[in-house]
Amino acid sequence: MPERLTIQINDHDNVAVAVHDLPAGTKLEGGLVTRDPIPQAHKIALRDIPAGGEIVRYGVVLGYAKADIPAGSWINEHMLDLPESPALTDMPWGTRIKAAEELPAPTRTTWLGYRNKVGPAGTRNLLGIVTTVQCAAGVLKVAVERIKKELLPKYPHVDGVVAVTHPYGCGVAINAPLAYLSIRAVSNLIRHPNFGGEIMVVGLGCEKLTYDRVLPPEDITPENVLTLQDYAGHDAMMQAILDMADRKLQRLDRRRREELPLSELLIGMQCGGSDAFSGITANPSAGYAADMLVRGGATVLFSEVTEVRDGVHMLAARCVSAGVRDKLAAEMKWYDDYLAAGGVDRDANPTPGNKKGGLANIVEKAMGSIAKSGTSPIVEVFSPAEKPAKHGLIFAATPASDIVCGPSQLASGIGLQVFMTGRGTPYGLDVAPVIKVCSRTEMKEHWFDLIDISAGQVATGEKTIADVGQEIFDMILDVASGIRQPYSDQYGFHNDLCIFNPAPIT
Ligand code: CA
């Protein structure tokens, strides 16, 4: 079989993507000859495109040519004008609903998790200690190191201790109309499924985010909350934290994994550092795994509003009701207005790395990003940090920033995140494991001991999306069950949590 040089996604496309760096004068499949050197993952014009003409990839108009583009030319991000984003009113819904039998069948139907009294099961057994304010973070960081060293060895059935710190809590307009978004995130993080229902909250004592804003009255007890300003000096403060942690660890140590149905599993999907291969290899492979999970009864979140905005009509077609479609439109509209208030639009999203990776603009990025949602019906749409009410595929409307999407999905209760990358990121979370999937073989060769799964062979034709989808599905269940550890956990590469706060800071 001759080596594949380019990939054309849709028959209507007038561009293809280079599988490798291609020199000028390369004869492509079909006989076309490149006029310019084409960097890997970048676009080649398959036909002459006149000034003002449509540039089509994924069967979708990415933009309009600023000048004539002869066939065989390299099309970079400077050569096209952005189209208008799709209208949000009267989007047809439910026109592309797949029946469960049309989705790929899961090859395993159970996993090993920590059952909770309510909500999804845990993938880890962790003591989570949450701060109400950043002021307490330094103390907690030191205390957690001591807990790990002095207490954790006594409790072999506990996987770890996590300090859930964040930049929210004080110096913020706590009564602003949008403050509920950040407050809900902190409140739901306290009850993350991996913390087994044990509540441990450390506050300073004078912050605006008081305990009653994140806990119901019955949970605000000396057993669960600890206020640093109540203690006389360093030693008393540390001892109080260690004593409380010890009591919680005793209870957590009694938890055991048990065989559970997939309906007890809640995971999230995210991508970051995407390139033009992400939408061909890594994201559709993750989407295939998502379809298997959904058919098996699991719940899968996908997110990142600005990265689906240009494909919103495609998502509306998969919404199961007018109500879900309306919620999707409302979340998009909220974000359009949020960006407009900041003087930008959704094209502020792509990064220099995305562009170097061949993504010309946000339309092209969105078409690739959506692929990670697979093909299942969308049963629910919710706002950042809300918890699911349904099982199945859900759009959780979070920002696309890796470091903001992560805690938002954690607050929704994900026990694991699958993270697709083109350019490479060491991203990880300590509350829940993160599996990283890269879009190119070269990325896996470069970061051989940082990237868990490569989807690069889909581009060269050596593997199918179903092959890599199956690998991702298997790794999700192995990692969720505690059988395997992704690289980020092996090294302890865990990012800070940035709680989404659209309300003013004072
Ligand atoms: Ca992201």
From TrEMBL:
Enzyme class, broadest EC rank: lyase
Domain annotation SAF: ranges: 13-81
Keywords: Lyase
Cytoplasm recorded as keyword: no
EC number: 4.2.1.42
CDD domains: SAF_AH_GD
A GO term, aspect molecular function: galactarate dehydratase activity
InterPro entries assigned to the protein according to its UniProt record, in alphabetical order: GarD-like (IPR017654), GD_AH_C (IPR048332), GD_AH_second (IPR007392), SAF (IPR013974), SAF_UxaA/GarD (IPR044144), UxaA_altronate/galactarate_dh (IPR052172)
GO biological process: D-galacturonate catabolic process; galactarate catabolic process
Family indicated by similarity: Belongs to the UxaA family.
NCBIfam families: galactar-dH20
Protein's name according to its UniProt entry: Galactarate dehydratase
Species of the source: Candidatus Faecalibacterium gallistercoris
Lineage: Bacteria, Bacillati, Bacillota, Clostridia, Eubacteriales
Gene expressing this chain: garD
